[in-house]
Amino acid sequence: MKIDACGLSCPQPVLLTMNAIKDNKLFFEVMVDSNIACENIQRLAENKGYKIQIKKTEKKFHLILTK
Questions:
Q1: Residue-wise pLDDT tens digits, 4-34
Q2: What is the DSSP string of 1-67?
Q3: Distance between CA 44 and CA 36 in Å, rounded?
């Protein structure tokens, strides 16, 4: 599952991520274009027991969450 949250203001990227977590997704990717959204999603994922891998491209952060 991929969530493209680029261009969305906080808290929307976090809320989309929270919905995927509530749906018990074991593996998914979130794309954001904001450092703040990246940090907030990282904190949420770690608090919910997900491992997170972050890949930064020129304009986007790709966060891969795994349970």
A1: 999 999 999 999 999 999 999 999 999 999 9
A2: -EEE-TTPPTTHHHHHHHHHHHTT-SEEEEEES-HHHHHHHHHHHHHTT-EEEEEE-SS-EEEEEE-
A3: 12
Map tokens 């608090």 to a residue: 47
Domain containing 58: what range? 2-66
Task: Give the CATH number, domain containing residue 23.
Answer: 3.30.110.40
**Into how many domains does the chain fold?**
1
Q: Which tokens is 40 given?
A: 């907030």
Q: Is the pTM of this model over 0.70?
A: yes
Two tokens at 50?
């997900």
